[in-house]
């Protein structure tokens, strides 16, 4: 029987930034009012530029 992990896992940014190196995973939060929860997303970053997580 093959084991499959359940739940979410952290994104892999190893190929997300194309030829740019080093490509690192960062958390980005958005500004929102006090009454609502602020979403946090992962992006890949290289030399100050954000790339979408594959």
From TrEMBL:
<comment type="similarity">
    <text>Belongs to the plant cysteine rich small secretory peptide family. Epidermal patterning factor subfamily.</text>
</comment>
<keyword id="KW-1015">Disulfide bond</keyword>
<keyword id="KW-0732">Signal</keyword>
<dbReference type="InterPro" id="IPR039455">
    <property type="entry name" value="EPFL"/>
</dbReference>
<comment type="function">
    <text>Controls stomatal patterning.</text>
</comment>
<protein>
    <recommendedName>
        <fullName>Epidermal patterning factor-like protein</fullName>
    </recommendedName>
</protein>
<dbReference type="GO" id="GO:0005576">
    <property type="term" value="C:extracellular region"/>
</dbReference>
<dbReference type="GO" id="GO:0010052">
    <property type="term" value="P:guard cell differentiation"/>
</dbReference>
<keyword id="KW-0217">Developmental protein</keyword>
<keyword id="KW-0964">Secreted</keyword>
<dbReference type="Pfam" id="PF17181">
    <property type="entry name" value="EPF"/>
</dbReference>
């Amino acid at each position: 029987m093959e084991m499959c992990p359940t739940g979410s896992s952290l994104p892999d940014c190893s190929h997300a930034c194309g030829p740019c190196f080093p490509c690192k995973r960062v958390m980005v939060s958005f500004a929102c009012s006090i009454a609502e929860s602020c979403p946090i997303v992962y992006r890949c970053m290289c030399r100050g530029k954000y790339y979408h997580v594959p």
